[in-house]
Design brief:
This protein has one domain: Jelly Rolls (Sandwich), CATH 2.60.120. Helix content is about 0%, strand content about 65%. The chain is built from no helices and eight strands. Strands 1, 2, 4, 5, 6 and 7 form a six-stranded antiparallel β-sheet that branches. A two-stranded antiparallel ribbon has the order 3-8. The two termini are about 20 Å apart. Pfam families: Cupin_2. This is Cupin domain-containing protein. InterPro entries: Cupin_2, RmlC-like_jellyroll, RmlC_Cupin_sf.
């Protein structure tokens, strides 16, 4: 995620789960691209707002999320968070996670 200061302070592992973990994070801003080649990721907004961008063959697809909404990001799909405002989010994230600063090719 892109923010000022030490990014590790924005994330906490709540519990291990299958091949990954349940995480809670709290931040504002936008993230780099990421994908999870071994499984779907569940993202639930606990507080704040964000736009989740999924990158597919047809280009970018945007989903605006507010408190108590969730999205399931399919296995292997590049995605990022944009314009997050005081976002507290819980994720169930499979590992490994691949990252890219530049927009990846699908």
């Amino acid at each position: 995620m892109a923010f000022e200061g030490d990014a590790s302070e924005a994330f906490a592992e709540v519990a291990p789960y299958r091949d990954g973990a349940v995480y809670v994070s709290y931040y504002s801003g936008s993230s780099e691209w990421e994908r999870h080649p071994n499984g779907d990721e569940v993202v639930m907004v606990l507080e704040g707002t964000t736009t989740v961008i999924l990158l597919g063959n047809a280009g970018e697809e945007r989903f605006s999320l507010v408190e108590q909404e969730l999205i399931v990001i399919p296995k292997g799909v590049w995605h990022r968070f944009e314009g997050s405002d005081r976002l507290k989010v819980m994720t169930i994230t499979p590992q490994p996670t691949e990252h890219s600063l530049d927009t990846p090719t699908t």
